[in-house]
């Protein structure tokens, strides 16, 4: 963390953001559900991250739900002017903590307002629409109607910039036909490079590519085995910038 100034920056919308940020998903309780065991430690962690130079926090109001954003607000509000908060919508949690698609106009509108209230903001810098046709990876399906809702909320002044997450190239083009996007959040790392060509294209268009699992992390319930050594790998919570990409400390959702 002491060397964060050396990681360089990348353009996200109209802001220059450091290439290493903080993903707030694990501030909630086990399974990203319910309160953390030690709220004061969570608050201290957020304050330390900003003190060390982190200027981008990725979050969502379905983390907890609501809990992570409320912790961020308690820890950091009023926010430093250089801090960028990015959230995502498109899912909700049921009473068991399952991830449920939430793509209706009413659900998306409520999600934006929940983020604003719980973060203590009048406008969110970036809202990403998380495609939920598959929880664990991009899957085809139209996002046109849902993304149009975000574009309307942007026109109302509730959102500054729009992005998409867990999406295919077709869905990216579908979104861009409705409104400009500033970032794409997808699963990417050295072993999972399906988006190599997409990254280059987005860079040419000035759109940030935000990889989650950039160190080869897996879904929290998954295991992967090396063919040569049969070595077990579990997901990792730390994040590292991949050259040419804007790295966001995002996890599975």
UniProtKB/TrEMBL annotation:
In its keyword annotation, does this UniProt entry include Oxidoreductase? yes
Domain NADP-dependent oxidoreductase span(s) in chain numbering: 19-216
Keyword annotations from UniProtKB, A to Z = Oxidoreductase
Q: Is Oxidoreductase given among the entry's keywords?
A: yes
Which superkingdom does the taxonomy of this entry point to? Bacteria
Pfam families (UniProt xref): Aldo_ket_red
Q: Which NCBIfam families match?
A: PRK10376.1
Q: What is this protein called?
A: Oxidoreductase
Organism in which the protein naturally occurs? Vreelandella olivaria
């Amino acid at each position: 963390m002491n060397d964060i100034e050396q990681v360089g920056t990348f353009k996200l919308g109209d802001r220059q953001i450091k290439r290493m940020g903080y993903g707030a998903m694990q501030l909630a309780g086990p399974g990203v559900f319910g309160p953390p065991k030690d709220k004061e430690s969570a608050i201290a962690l957020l304050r330390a991250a900003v003190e060390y130079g982190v200027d981008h926090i990725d979050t969502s109001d379905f983390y907890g739900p609501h809990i992570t954003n409320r912790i961020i607000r308690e820890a950091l509000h009023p926010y430093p002017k250089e801090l960028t908060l990015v959230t995502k919508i498109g899912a909700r949690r049921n009473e068991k903590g399952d991830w449920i698609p939430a793509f209706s106009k009413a659900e998306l509108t409520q999600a934006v307002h929940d983020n604003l209230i719980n973060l203590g903001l009048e406008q969110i810098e970036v809202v990403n629409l998380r495609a939920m046709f598959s929880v664990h990876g991009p899957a085809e399906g139209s996002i046109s109607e849902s993304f149009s809702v975000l574009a309307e909320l942007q026109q109302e002044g509730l959102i500054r910039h729009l992005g998409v997450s867990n999406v295919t190239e077709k869905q990216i083009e579908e979104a861009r036909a409705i409104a400009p996007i500033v970032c794409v959040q997808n699963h990417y790392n050295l072993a999972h490079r399906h988006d190599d060509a997409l990254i280059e294209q987005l860079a040419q268009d000035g759109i940030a590519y935000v990889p989650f699992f950039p160190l080869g992390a897996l879904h929290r319930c998954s295991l992967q085995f090396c063919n040569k050594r049969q070595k077990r790998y579990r997901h990792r919570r730390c994040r590292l910038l991949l050259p040419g990409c804007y790295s966001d400390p995002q996890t599975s959702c």
